Structure formats: C-alpha cells, structure tokens
C-alpha cells in the first residue's frame, strides 16, 4: 500500500503551524522543513505530532527539492503552513495514491484575502501541483518564487480544495506584491524584455481586464474590483521599474 508524507515548509509561522499539522493528520507522516524559526514554530510543530528537519534555504524550489530528498514515502503532498487540508481532500488524496498511473496531481485552492474567500480575479480555482510521486518529481531551482514541480509522467486534477489563508491584512498583501513585482521586473529585464513608455498605460489596462473580466473578478463584487485595480497598479509599477533600469544601463 502506498504511503504519503505531508511536507510543510516553515519559517516563523507559529500562529499557523499547529492547525496546519493537525489538518495533515491523515498522512502516514507529517514533516516540517523549518528554516531557522525563532518564534517557537519547531516546538509547536513537534507537539502537534510532526517531525522537524532543519532546512537550509536558498529559494523555494531548492527547499522543495531538499524535502523530496529527505523523505521516504512513495508520495509527497506539499502543504504550506498557511494552508489547511480539508477532510474531503484528505479522503481524495488517500484514494488517488492507490494507483501510480498519475504521477502528479493539481489541487484547487480557496484563497482568503483580507477575510474574504475569492471566487475569481486569478485566485480561484488557483490549481497548485502539490501531490506527486517522490521519485518522479523535482523542481527547477532557477525559479526562485512561484515554483513549479516537473513531473515525469501523467498529471491529473483533484476536485477537493486546500484552504489558503494567504493575506490577513492589506499591509501584508501590499508587502508581498511589492516583492513579487520587483522580482518580476528583474526577471523580465534579465530575459532581455524591453519596456516602452506606452506600457505604463497598456499593461495595466490589460491586467485589469484579465483580472476583472477574463478571470471573473466581478464575481467578488467591490472586493474583486479593488483587487483588480491594485494588481493593475502593480503591473504599471513593474514596467516603470523596468524603464528606470533601462535608463540606468543606457544613460542618454
């Protein structure tokens, strides 16, 4: 019978780790890969029943590869500390791992953003490739954020959801978008993508349309409108930063 381990990457998540580990109790083993937490995360994780492994950190892809290399179970289910596995999802995971015909499974998420569960705007169904046969999966370590598993075999989609408590406040939301936007600008610049002043108008407009219309942000009412406008603004900032970098590299 196939065994499954839940792997949780963690750093200073004491407010989340107990509930996260408890939601993973269906697994044969729960392992927290912790990067030098100083807030008691490790102690709480052990008290909740998890094994804790001190983990070096370069980027998230490297950390997930480290986890794959230090587990023995046939299957690995990656769960973030601010996520919860529902009982329905736990049952579905146990059911699908009885066969190795599918090597990797995508899992939909319900995202809570500042207290509201999202229906659209890019945050639903928000499929994540999280359940995988350990020996047939690895991560591209060149991807520092928004990491993606590379699966040797067929992939499938689960029906039940992870619950993701990803942004508890607007301050937290903006801080993370600032980091993502700067990283995105840097990556595009390194890839040779050129920004043009017109992009300061066209790219935000495209991003708003994508979020609010194509990805049905309108289903979230004023909350969806606000988030779509915010994300359009960050798209504008990304191209502004790219323009500034181009001017720095090629002064007139």
Evaluate the radius of gyration.
Answer: 20 Å
Q: How many DSSP helices?
A: 7
Whole-number count of domains: 2
Mean of residue pLDDT values: 95
Identify the CATH architecture of the largest domain: Alpha-Beta Complex
Write the layout of secondary structure elements.
Blueprint: E1 4-10, H1 14-23, E2 29-34, H2 41-47, E3 51-54, H3 60-69, E4 75-78, E5 83-85, H4 87-96, E6 102-107, E7 109-113, E8 116-117, E9 128-133, E10 137-139, E11 149-151, E12 154-157, E13 162-167, H5 170-190, H6 199-214, H7 221-249
Parallel strand pairs: 1-2, 1-4, 2-3, 6-12, 7-13
Antiparallel strand pairs: 4-9, 5-13, 6-9, 7-8, 10-11
Q: What is the gist of this entry?
A:
This protein has 252 residues and is of the alpha/beta class. Helices cover 41% and strands 23% of the residues.
Could you walk me through the main structural features you see in this protein, from its secondary elements to its overall organization?
- The chain has 252 residues and is of the alpha/beta class.
- The chain has 2 domains: 4-166, Spore Coat Polysaccharide Biosynthesis Protein SpsA, Chain A (Alpha-Beta Complex); 169-249, no CATH class.
- It contains 7 helices and 13 strands.
- The chain has helices spanning 14-23, 41-47, 60-69, 87-96, 170-190, 199-214, 221-249; strands at 4-10, 29-34, 51-54, 75-78, 83-85, 102-107, 109-113, 116-117, 128-133, 137-139, 149-151, 154-157, 162-167.
- Strands 3-2-1-4-9-6-12 form a 7-stranded mixed β-sheet, with helices on both faces.
- α5 packs parallel to α7.
- The radius of gyration is 20 Å and the shape is globular.
- The N and C termini lie far apart (67 Å).
- The mean pLDDT is 95.
